[in-house]
Design brief:
The complex is a heterodimer of chains A (256) and B (325). Chain A is of the alpha/beta class. The longest helix of chain A has 21 residues. In chain A, a hairpin with a 2-residue loop joins strand 9 and strand 10. Chain B is mainly alpha-helical and 325 residues long. Chain B has one domain: ABC transporter involved in vitamin B12 uptake, BtuC (Orthogonal Bundle), CATH 1.10.3470. Helices cover 75% and strands 2% of the residues of chain B. In chain B, a hairpin with a 2-residue loop joins strand 2 and strand 3. In chain B, helix 1 packs across helix 8, helix 3 runs antiparallel to helix 11 and helix 3 crosses helix 12. Chain B is globular and about 55 Å long. The chains are: A alpha/beta (256), B mainly alpha (325). At the A-B interface, helix 2, helix 3, helix 4, helix 5 and helix 6 of A face helix 8, helix 9, helix 10, helix 11 and helix 16 of B.
């Protein structure tokens, strides 16, 4: 059963076709990677899937339901949660509070609860424990009360992932999670991604770090100039002549 | 977590803040005992604490901009004034109706504009502030124009009224304290976290399932409620109201208080309101240059303590913020 199904998804910006009739199935388990040269349309594709942009044509199905054109918050509610290419943290909230906001969809309480803190104390404790567990898992448990804005970049990325996991997604979309990370942070990210997939959350990621993709991805889809040019296991894709041509250019391409 | 604990927690973390709270409390006690003109100044300060604490929920927590909260104070204040002074209503009943009017107006202005990003809301609020002022000036048969309405009865319920200056001071300080505690409770709740999340990144908030337009509207309504309460308390405390009370000067004053105190923080907006309300008394000798002095103080604070009074301690221990301890 496919969790996410893209059917002829197209997005145009004036004359530019950023995403060109992409049809792609993402299964409900494992790690799927979308790769491609800069400007291939990967982030645009993510924006369309997560509701930040409406597609010009085509359909997006998630968990058997149409989500084409729904606003991001409605898509998040169905269990599709994304992160951003440049980490978008709530910089005026503490590390712990950031993850608590991630629990938004799984908690209740508005103004009344805010004004009667003693009655809300229990649910607040539950949120705190859940958030704490997520932060321990990404190694940020010692920075709970720090403002998110002052974290070093690598930790910001980890915090963003922990916050997204707090929303208990069925599918987690990660836009270049390894960008700006050093070697050891990337290694840590790789094992975190495997662990997330093992826990039953499907992962769809855009990534430039090829060694990371080859290590963690179960399936790879390749975009070039908005078109899906190949998909398969990392090994298949690596040997695919179209993919090699897209990344390196070929003698043929040079002649054409 | 509760609000009292959170204020205490912040204060313990930040000795400068604790000192400011203690000074504020000491000042209230001192003025209560010695009496005199300063009582009126503190009454005014307490009303502005309520107004600015509410504005901080919308501007500080949720990161939006409003130049027009004086309109909500005006709607509620004038309703209170007209109904109690001219029609013999109870202050509570008149105030409740005034607050409903302010909230209805906030809903009508906020619902369409808060769906838009950027400066549309700021422009809309600027317009409503100016419209409220013009209505107060022009609708002479009800508001008596520039003349204003005098003889507004003091606060009270039934036969019991708050007539002495000291009793009124206590009542206003308690109201302000309640307003500040409620704002602190909101900040520590799911609701308040959603507000601050929106000010951090609307995109990230939406990606986590937060309906941004809905939460902006709630923040707007809460702050309009605070403004309305402040507006109604004002007319009963002073016994007089005119359009100038809720003019553009109110907006400038509230912004000064918000930034001097430290926008976004509970303590900052409350303490900023007190400090700025007292400022004219300390620079009274400058009388004609008061606005100049306001401006100078504001600039100095924005340069040397961009986080306002609430961030003072960071000036001499810059590591505190990063340690978060």
């Amino acid at each position: 059963m496919n969790l996410l199904r893209l059917d002829g998804v197209t997005r145009q910006f004036g004359g530019l076709i950023a995403v060109d009739a992409v049809s792609l199935d993402v299964p409900a388990e494992g790690v799927t990677a979308v790769i491609g040269p800069n400007g291939a349309g990967k982030t645009t594709l993510f924006n369309v899937i997560s509701g930040f942009m409406a597609p010009s044509a085509g359909r997006v199905m998630f968990a058997g339901q149409h989500i084409t054109g729904l606003p991001p918050e409605a898509i998040a509610k169905r269990g599709l949660v994304r992160t951003f290419q440049l980490a978008q943290l709530f910089e005026n909230l503490t590390v712990l509070e950031n993850v608590k906001v991630g629990r938004h969809l799984h908690t209740t309480g508005g103004l009344l609860a805010a004004l009667m803190p003693f009655r809300a104390a229990h649910s607040e404790t539950v949120v705190e424990e859940a958030s704490l567990a997520l932060l321990q898992n990404v190694g940020l448990a010692s920075q709970l009360d720090m403002l998110a804005g002052v974290l070093p970049y690598g930790q910001k990325r980890l915090l963003e992932i922990a916050r997204a996991l707090a929303a208990e997604p069925k599918l987690l979309l990660l836009d270049e999670p390894a960008a700006g990370l050093n070697r050891s942070e990337t290694t840590r990210l790789a094992s975190l991604l495997r662990q997330i997939a093992t826990s039953g959350v499907a992962v769809l990621l855009i990534e430039h770090d090829m060694s990371l993709v080859m290590n963690v991805a179960d399936r790879v889809a390749v975009l070039d100039f908005g078109k899906l040019i190949a998909q398969g296991t990392p090994r298949d894709v690596q040997l695919n002549p179209d993919v090699i041509a897209a990344y390196l250019g070929t003698a043929l391409a040079a002649h054409a | 977590m509760n609000s009292r604990a959170s204020i205490w927690h912040d204060a313990r973390r930040d000795p400068a803040l604790l000192v400011l709270w203690v000074l504020a409390a000491a000042l209230v006690v001192y003025v209560f005992i010695t009496g005199g003109y300063l009582i009126a100044v503190l009454q005014f300060a307490a009303i502005y604490v309520i107004f600015v604490t509410g504005l901080n929920i919308f501007m500080g927590y949720a990161g939006q901009v409003s130049f027009g909260h004086n309109a909500f104070a005006a709607i509620s204040g004038y309703t209170s004034a007209v109904l109690t002074a001219n029609h013999g209503w109870e202050p509570i009943a008149a105030g409740a109706l005034g607050l409903s009017g302010a909230l209805a107006c906030a809903l009508i202005v906020g619902y369409p504009t808060l769906r838009l990003r950027g400066h549309y809301l700021a422009m809309a609020t600027l317009a409503i502030g100016l419209i409220a002022y013009e209505v107060a000036v022009q609708w002479g048969s009800v508001t008596q124009g520039y003349m204003g309405i005098s003889g507004i009865p003091p606060l009270g319920i039934g036969g019991w009224t708050v007539t002495s200056d000291r009793a009124l001071l206590v009542l206003l300080i308690l109201s302000a304290a309640l307003a500040v505690l409620a704002a602190a409770g909101i900040r520590r709740s799911r609701l308040g976290r959603a507000f601050v999340a929106i000010s951090g990144s609307e995109d990230a908030a939406r990606a986590l399932g937060i309906d941004v337009a809905h939460y902006k509207l709630i923040a707007f309504l809460i702050s309009a409620f605070y403004a309305g309460v402040a507006g109604s308390l004002f007319v009963h405390a002073v016994g007089f109201v005119s359009p100038e009370v809720y003019g553009l000067h109110m907006v400038v004053l509230a912004f000064t208080m918000l930034y001097v105190g430290g926008i976004g923080t509970v303590a900052g907006s409350a303490l900023g309101a007190m400090v700025v309300a007292l400022l004219p008394e300390t620079i009274r000798a400058l009388s004609d240059y008061q606005d100049l002095a306001y401006g100078a103080v504001l600039i100095v604070i924005l340069i040397y303590a961009p986080g306002g009074l609430a961030s003072l301690s960071r000036l001499w221990s810059p590591k505190r913020r990063t340690e978060g301890a």
